[in-house]
Specification:
alpha/beta, six-stranded parallel beta sheet, binds iron/sulfur cluster, binds Broken Fe4S4 cluster
Length: 625
């Protein structure tokens, strides 16, 4: 974690990052690490969750001398309220992304766009029947209309429970019913969280935490899940493919364009424009060998999963990608795009383009993407990038090292297919102890940590212990760069994983997508529980976000715990100012939800912590002595 002045080697484990941090220093470019240094030490009131700005009688800070805010709220209430608003922000982010996907499906269904189509009709029919829509003898677009309407309703206040709760094991639904946290509508839970945390409403910390769980469940089992399923319907369900990762994917003689953000609605059109022969010819006219597209963060994950587009880097690589001096243009949708991208790109010839009214950046060129104009806007963006190529200063270009190979595209459909159509072989492998458990490592980078040290070492330790690892979000890039996402990585795993993954020809760490695709992991957990007739909390599963930073990651962790999955975090959210809240998160939730958070910054100790939990679950199922 943070210390005031870090050496370059202490900032990141990666040679490409270290070289670019050094270059940034020489080029006089400030990065997240420099700004962190200036922000350290952080305010201890904020860090422990004990400051409140919910009204203008304050702001208030809770201390021994002043244990109550002006309104009389104590530390427990303030911490719980802050946490509730924090995860409501995360749930809103993912779920609003899901809403944009519904709008796209709705527009396709009503013939309002020629730019988007249904790529996976079989999946549309499968999902529609799963949520109770009649499909027989009906035109596909009519089914899509009904599905988009039903998904819109999942955001409102009219449903008594969310459509995808049909996937949730009965035992889990009973727990939610008894606690009064069955998620209803996405917007409803988020709005209620904001309401409850207004001055003078919910002044009972455990009660506020329960609604935090409900809010996050609406993200996991609706907002994010809807986003994933519609993205598959519109752009294709991912299948395994080889691709490359790290800054070495940039090409010195090409126009380099990077997509950044989360929603594939923009990036899927950019890839089409990049492959347009007219635009390729235009790039060649300008002296480039061609156009090279790469990904950053989660929209990069989306394009990688479905199209095999190479990945330039995760969260802390986004500024450093510009520092290569080789990037003509970054096109961003929303989420996790550092505002500093503008100032860093101003130091080079890189153009920043924003595409959503929800995420405008002063200093960027804004090209608004709508469902009806996605293709023409994408062409504009690519043309702009090509025009920047001649402004590149070749003396300032440095592309570090060659890229690393990785395999991507492990959707649940692919896993089921690889297992011969049923989960039985996986369950048998779990019963036999060849696969002792399954852990999802997800989430971000945070400059308070040595970049990817925890993400990578935790994955390595777990596979050694015969625990299958699933990755999404920025941990994907970390695992790929560490060589864990290729079948040959079974050599780093224990004998059981080596045997099972070896026989299937798959890596011991499987890439399952972007941040919203954690919903794929929820679905897999539910499928396993239903197959065995147990609750999700009975399974030898865990989640982990070792280097998380975002509200969305906290929301993911909370919906995992509320779904019955023990979740490790490298550091706690800003809740440590309240014993009541902290105890509930790391102990009390276990009693009522069958899962809780575990906090451990050291990846080796975290692996032992998770392993112990998996051992307990296996013992309870009679699978281990
Ligand atoms: Fe202070 Fe209470 Fe207002 Fe918060 S809600 S700022 S604790 S008076
Ligand atoms: S992009 S939320 S830094 S994983 Fe999904 Fe990466 Fe975390 Fe953003």
């Amino acid at each position: 974690m943070t210390k005031e002045k870090k050496t370059i080697e202490e900032k990141s484990i990666w040679p490409d990052a270290q070289k670019m941090i050094r270059k940034a220093e020489l080029d006089n470019v400030e990065t997240a690490w420099d700004r962190l240094e200036k922000q350290t030490p952080h305010c201890t009131f904020c860090e422990s969750g004990l400051s409140c700005q919910n009204c203008t009688m304050g702001p208030c800070r809770i201390s021994k001398k002043a244990p109550l805010g002006v309104c009389g709220a104590d530390g427990d209430v303030i911490v719980a309220r802050n946490f509730g608003r924090f995860v409501a922000g995360g749930s809103a982010g993912h779920s609003d992304h899901g809403r944009d996907c519904i709008e796209a499906l709705h527009a396709v269904a009503h013939n309002l766009t020629a730019d988007y189509t249904i790529k996976d009709e079989a999946k549309l029919l499968r999902i529609a029947s799963e949520v109770g829509i009649t499909c027989e003898d009906r035109p596909v677009l009519d089914i899509a209309k009904d599905l988009s309407e039903l998904f819109y309703a999942n955001y409102g206040s009219t449903l008594s429970e969310l459509s995808f709760l049909c996937r949730v094991p009965e035992k889990r639904k009973k727990i939610w019913r008894e606690l009064g946290i069955t998620p209803r509508g996405v917007d409803r839970e988020i709005a209620e969280m904001m309401h409850r945390t207004h001055m003078g409403c919910d002044n009972d910390a455990p009660n506020t935490l329960l609604h935090s769980a409900r809010t996050c469940l609406s993200d996991g089992w609706a907002g994010s899940m809807i986003a994933t399923e519609i993205s598959d319907i519109l752009f294709g369900t991912p299948t395994p493919r080889k691709t490359m990762v790290n800054l070495g994917i940039l090409k010195e003689d090409h126009v380099n364009i990077l997509v950044h953000g989360h929603n594939p609605i923009v990036s899927e059109k950019i890839i089409e424009a990049v492959n347009d022969p007219e635009l390729i010819a235009f790039a060649q006219e300008k002296g480039a060998a061609g156009i090279n597209l790469g990904g950053l963060c989660c929209t990069g994950n989306e394009l990688m999963m479905r199209q095999g587009v190479p990945m330039a880097g995760n969260h802390l690589m986004t500024e450093l990608a510009i520092v290569t001096g080789a990037v003509e243009l970054i096109v961003a949708d929303y989420q996790c795009i550092m505002p500093s991208m503008i100032t860093v790109s101003d130091c080079y010839h890189t153009k920043m383009v924003t595409t959503s009214n929800k995420a405008k950046f002063t200093g960027a060129e804004h090209i608004q993407f709508e469902i009806h104009n996605g293709m023409s806007q994408a062409r504009k963006v690519v043309r702009l990038a090509i025009e920047r190529f001649s402004s590149r200063n070749n003396d300032r270009v440095e592309i570090p090292q060659g890229p690393i190979e990785m395999v991507t595209g492990f959707s649940n459909e692919v896993l089921l297919n690889a297992l011969g159509g049923s989960l039985t072989p996986l369950i048998d492998a779990i019963k036999a102890g060849d696969i002792r458990g399954v852990v999802a490592i997800v989430g971000c980078n945070n400059p308070k940590y040595k970049q990817d040290h925890c993400n990578v070492n935790l994955a390595k330790e777990l596979i050694k212990k015969d625990i299958l690892v699933l990755v999404t979000g920025c941990v994907t890039t970390a695992s790929g760069k560490a060589g864990l996402l290729i079948p040959e990585a079974i050599e780093m795993a224990g004998p059981g994983i080596k045997k099972i993954c070896g026989s299937l020809g798959i890596p011991p760490v499987l890439h399952m997508g972007s941040c919203i695709d954690n919903s794929r992991i929820l679905q897999l957990a539910a499928l396993l529980a239903n197959e065995l007739g147990v609750d999700i909390s009975d399974l030898p599963l865990a989640g982990s976000s070792p280097e998380w930073y975002s509200e969305k990651a906290a929301a993911i962790g909370t919906y995992c715990v509320a779904s019955g999955i023990y979740t490790h975090l490298g550091h706690p959210p800003n809740i440590t100012g309240s014993e009541v809240v902290t105890n509930l998160a790391i102990n009390g939730f276990d009693d009522i939800l069958g899962a809780c958070f575990g906090i451990e910054p050291d990846p080796f100790k975290a692996a032992d912590l998770i392993d112990a939990r998996i051992k307990d679950k296996r013992k309870a199922l009679g699978l281990e002595e």
